[in-house]
Amino acid sequence: MTPALVRCGRPAGRTVERVTSAPPSTVPLDDRFARELPEMALPWHAEAAPDPQLLVLNEPLAAELGLDPAALRGADGVRFLVGNAVPPGARPVAQAYAGHQFGGYNPRLGDGRALLLGELVDADGRVRDLHLKGSGPTPFSRGGDGFAAVGPMLREYVISEAMHALGIPTTRALAVVATGRPVYRETALPGAVLARVASSHLRVGSFQYARSTGDVELLRRLADVAIERHHPAAAEAENRYLALYEAVVAAQASLVAQWMLVGFVHGVMNTDNATISGETIDYGPCAFMEAVDPATVYSSIDAGGRYAYGNQPLIAEWNLARLAESLLPLLAEEQEPAVELAVAALTRFRPQYSAAWTAGMRAKLGLPEGLDDAATGPLAEELLELLQAGHVDHTSFFRALGSAARGDVDPARNLFLDLAGVDTWLQRWGALEPDAAAMDRVNPVYIPRNHLVEEALEAATGGDLEPLGRLLDVVTRPFEERPGLDRYAAPAPEDFGAAYRTFCGT
Ligand code: AMP
Ligand code: MG
Fold this sequence. Notes:
By secondary structure, the chain is α+β, with helices and mostly antiparallel strands.
């Protein structure tokens, strides 16, 4: 039996009880961001959750952070996870940032429904942010209610953990706790808080905000924090801020290439959702593409297709141009040489993206590393044209190609109606002697397919957490084909597909 978690009828509680017993009292949360960048950190508190119930806890991640999973499951632990029991010494803040949303600039976004609880040092000695999403209104809420619903928070949990298992840099999900407070969207929905872990929450939008204050010393301090935390090699460079910029360009080029290689559509690549670390962040209307098509859009608010699958590299480059504009005062004393340096650095995005994509494709096709890009590139491009023309499922095809490398071409071939093109392609590719075992290590069997995610979230919202647990188990071991899981590997039924829309996680 799974616990019912919907308590929509209950009025929201208002009192915050001070709970200081273990584990919150022992969690060594630092207030580093608040100390280093006070101009961008507004001390704030989470709204009291009237009846917090833990829905899902990431035990391996908790252990990585030095947190005791058993303690987190206890009453005090759950209060800690919704921000209602703050360890002594911690100073939760709402972070200020700006951003271009769908191309339009907003000088003041910030954490409108989130809080940075503080920083932890993980088992590897890395500093990680512990952050809450859905923790209540802040001075940055701009008319929003500051809350989040169970469905979208579980969605971020599932998809970010799937991305991590696929080897793609991403923020992680530590826990989702139902608050017992209804949130009102089109209907009343059960509310929740996601506890998120990131190597930081510094975004392109953080730099836009610092730049817009006109305070160059703040901008420099922000850049120094980013260098120390994410790109320490830049500190050794002659022009450390240019080196920082180059490092972010490289990190984003590599990240977006990895999205493209698994068919991930982020859905809302605003500059406030582009990290300096190169981690994927803010899983709102994201989804995995099934039939290959560059025009694929799932987000209900992206009517113009700005953030379509095939546009993602261009948008990443556009976002990086906005970062360059913000950094100009640090790159050189005069504007003109600063612009020249920025342009030269940004020019490297395209070749870096192409190299990362081509290397990833070479691995997906099981071809040796030494193989010339000039051979891999056209072979891969031609394949994508065939996949698009045949409306072939991206994930199924690449996995089936592993069987083709073992001599059984049927699973891959049978995904096409028009066989002439694919037969010629399979012959050319087969002649390069692809390595099937290597392919199975990079081509997932299981991704969080949209219909399965929706099914799991709907059940969870109604109180049944079992489908969610099963889905999580499957997508966090994506490369390992296991018996009995066929339905998790199959594309959505026809009646689900074309009209599928995702909604921003509000
Ligand atoms: P997102 O689409 O999650 O990246 O959010 C974009 C901006 O809108 C950020 O400043 C969020 O804090 C803010 N925001 C999103 N949803 C809400 C909400 N329900 N209440 C207040 N602010 C929100
Ligand atoms: Mg965001």
